[in-house]
Structure formats: C-alpha cells, structure tokens
Amino acid sequence: MAVADWEARPADDEYFATRTDYFRQGDIFRDVPLGYPFPADAFSHTEGNRKFLSGPFDAGFGMLLTPTCSMAAQGAPGNYAHSVRAIAPVLPVAYLVEQEAIKIGALPDLRERDHLINYMYIPAIETAAMPESLALLYAVITVHHDYLETADDEDGESRRIAQLSQPAAIHLKYKLTALFAGELFSHADFRDDIN
To answer: Which domain covers residue 30, as residue numbers?
Structure first.
C-alpha cells in the first residue's frame, strides 16, 4: 500500500479523551508485563528488507486490542464477560529507529499518515512519561485482566493512562483492518459509539 493511499491520522491533540470508566479497545496502560514464552534460540527476524522485534520485552506500555464488545458482559453493564486481554506492546519511536526496525526516512510520513501497516502511531503522553511511540500491532500478547486494573505501587491507581478519542479509536480500527485483512478502507467506513 503506497503512502498516498493512507488517510491522515488524527492530530496529536485529538488522540486522547476520557470516554468511559470501563476499559475500551485502544486504552493505553503502563507497567504491563510484555513477556513471551520464547524458546532459548529465538531471535529478531531480519529476513528481507525489514526487521521485526519479537521480544521478550520488559514490562512497559501496552495498548488494549481486545474489542470492547468482546469484553463487555451482555446484559450486565460495566462488567466483563471474560478475563483474557490482547495487548500490543507500545515502544518508543526512537528505540525502534535505534534497533533499525523503523527507518529514519519513514518518520515524516509516519507522523502524518501513520502508514506502516504493522504499527500504530501513538503521540507522547507527557503526564505518564511516555514518549512518541508505536504500538506493535503484529506482536499481540495476552494478559489477564487483573494486570490492567491496579498498579502495584503505593498510589493504587489504575494502570490505564489514556483512552483513545473517537477519531483515534476509529483510526485504530482502520489500522487493524489494514493489518489483519490486508485491505485499506476509509475512516468513514468505521464507527466507535459509546454504548
């Protein structure tokens, strides 16, 4: 898919909004365990012209990918149907460039159109000390819901640091469809209503 085929992503100041008390697809969390049960001889893949980081990653930021409708208990608003959550590791852009997973020449188009199919651009969240980052959509891991609820530190606050605004939540659906269906639709083809 050519860069010109991608619609512009939402502006940085339009990415986040508190929309619900319950968790929603696209929520960003801190201190999430991002480990994988990898064999001892696992490595980062560098075949061809691209490099993909495969972890295991240290605990850090993660984006919830489990669809909101899948988590919600039907007929019991505010409750969850199951405890399995799909999370994409969220790593700093600078680290991904340093590791040569992202080419420095791709950054201008990435910041404007978020055109890399395997990743989703996430603007910095200064209040959580999260730099400009990318969610590794190809590297989904599963965690138990309880890992997302409350941090282990003294403040007892939720690990959730941000919720996507409606335009950014639609952009996430746009990105997931491009990755998993191999097809680009328009942002106008998606909705993200609060139910």
So the answer is: 3-185
- Domain membership of residue 83 (yes or no) is yes
Q: How many CB atoms lie within 10 A of CB 23?
A: 21
Q: Provide the residue type at 63 as one letter.
A: M
pTM of this prediction?
A: 0.86
Give the DSSP letter of residue 130: B
| Residue 86 forms part of a structural domain | yes
- As a whole number of angstroms, the distance between CA 36 and CA 120 comes to 21
Residue 192 domain flag: no
Distance in angstroms (rounded) separating the CA atoms of residues 29 and 4: 32
Domain count, the chain: 1
Read off φ and ψ for residue 118, nearest 5 degrees: -85, -5
What does the pLDDT read at residue 124? Answer: 97
Helix (H, G, I), strand (E, B) or coil at 161: strand
Distance CA 44, CA 52 (A): 6
- pLDDT 10s digits, 130-146: 999 999 999 898 888 88
Closest CA to 18 of 189, 161, 191: 161
Q: Distance (Å, rounded) from C-alpha 111 to C-alpha 156?
A: 34
**Residues paired with 136 in a beta bridge:** 119
Q: Are 151 and 30 in contact (CB under 8 A)?
A: yes
Does residue 57 sit within a domain?
A: yes
Rounded alpha-carbon distances, angstroms, from residue 152 to 41, 88, 126: 32, 21, 21
CATH code of the domain containing 146: 2.30.30.110
